[in-house]
Design a protein that fits this description.
412 residues; 40% helix
Length: 412
């Protein structure tokens, strides 16, 4: 067996004709790693094979969002893809739009006019008959043909199409302007797609997509090992899509609890909402976990005032037991287990009445084989990001001591 420590996944997969139907049945997968893991866990794979080809030369990278697209463009301009470079003849018409290379990986086509006082930074490509006025600053960007850039314009990590006119004082960062755009709004534009006079946000990076560094090349010498790591505790992050997704999950689970809807149907509803709002597995886990805890409050609006603490827990326990099959469907990996515990911690931090029930909830989830002992102990030893984190860890200390006792599985 050979183990390579200097390689990175290009994200490119060549699949058989049997794979697309599996993607159709499991459309909640966000990347190939999720797909492979899900197939190994849930599907019959006997007789099937996954092959890996290791490239020892050349260049390969998958473009999935603006950041990877920008990274590949910079790699091309910085000649990591040589001989595929702007100043090299290739294609059906090798003499068309041939660029001249200047220092700092700046490429200019014929009849480019740059006024005195303009600043052309690194990794820039400028198309033919493009005029750049004084005071213009361009860095890590691509400009098309026949563009007119007015004075004091700033363009950073952006892509400007052909026949684009930009007015004085405009600023663009991580933007795309399509062909024929005329823009004279001096308000800074960050992460926008400007098309036919309309402004749209550029979709954020897809989770699981590889981080393409501008210096990533054949040997992949410059790789950020932490590029794909997620910050712990981001379950506090709330945005409009997540709130809408959480509301739909809440409605589905609440109805499912009251009407005894089959788990398979609830999974289909949740996956449909996940696909519609482009939620990650982490966000799905958080949304489901908090929805389960909120069901008793939705059914009984005066939950904390109407019931004693003992009855409150009985009602909460009833919901968890009834939806345990659904929870087990989504809480399958160590990451999802930690996400669920962090969601419980955040919920307890925000809802003081739930704090006495946190230990009981963890114990119940452990007894139902949804949360393993290792995940609970790892969470307890990790630092908390919440104000009540220290208090909550003290409140569950009895459970932690019991889990740390040898042969605790056989004890009552």
């Amino acid at each position: 067996m050979d183990i390579y420590m200097d390689s990175v996944d290009t994200g490119i997969a060549v699949c058989s004709t049997s794979v697309p139907p599996l993607f159709s049945d499991n459309f909640d997968f966000t990347c190939m790693n999720d797909f492979i893991r899900g197939i190994i866990i849930n599907e019959e794979i006997l007789g099937n094979s996954i092959y890996l080809h290791r490239l020892v030369s050349g260049y390969a990278c998958r473009v999935v969002d603006f950041d990877t697209f920008q990274g590949v463009c910079c790699d091309i301009l910085q000649r990591w893809t040589y001989p595929v470079a702007p100043d090299m003849p290739f294609g059906s018409n090798p003499n068309e739009n041939l660029y001249n290379m200047h220092k700092n990986f700046v490429y200019k086509a014929a009849n480019v006019k740059t006024a005195a006082g303009s600043e052309i930074g690194k990794s820039v490509m400028i198309g033919t008959n493009t005029a750049i006025s004084k005071g213009v600053k361009i860095n890590a960007s691509v400009l098309g043909n026949n563009c007119k850039i007015s004075p004091d314009v700033t363009i950073t990590e952006s892509h400007i199409g052909n026949n684009v006119t930009i007015g004085m004082g405009c600023s663009f960062s991580r933007c795309i302007l399509t062909d024929g755009t005329i823009w004279d709004d001096s308000a800074p534009q960050i992460g926008k797609l400007i098309m036919n006079g309309e402004v749209h946000p550029i979709q954020p990076p897809i989770e699981g997509a590889e981080d393409t560094d501008s210096e990533q090349g054949t040997d992949f010498d410059e790789i950020d090992d932490d590029a794909s790591d997620e910050e712990p505790g981001v379950c506090g992050l709330q945005d409009v899509d997540f709130n809408t997704f959480s509301s739909e999950v809440m409605e589905s689970l609440s109805r499912g609890f009251r009407q005894n809807v089959a788990t398979e149907n609830l999974v289909l509803e949740i996956n449909s909402s996940k696909f519609a709002y482009n939620m990650t597995f982490k966000e799905v886990t958080i949304g489901i976990s908090k929805a389960v805890l909120n069901i008793p409050l939705k059914i009984h609006p005066e939950f904390y005032e109407e019931f004693t603490p003992r009855i409150q827990w009985e009602k909460m326990k009833e919901v968890i037991i009834k939806l345990k099959t659904l929870l087990a469907h989504y809480i399958t990996t160590s990451e999802s287990q930690m996400d669920m515990i962090q969601a419980l911690e955040e919920y307890a931090n925000d809802n003081i009445h739930f704090r006495p029930m946190l230990m009981k909830a963890l114990h119940l989830l452990y007894d139902e084989d949804i949360l393993p002992e290792e995940a609970i102990l790892r969470w307890h030893m990790s630092p908390s990001l919440y104000e009540a984190g220290g208090e909550l860890r003290v409140m569950v200390k009895q459970l932690i001591d019991w889990l740390e006792t040898p042969d605790s599985d056989s004890d009552e």
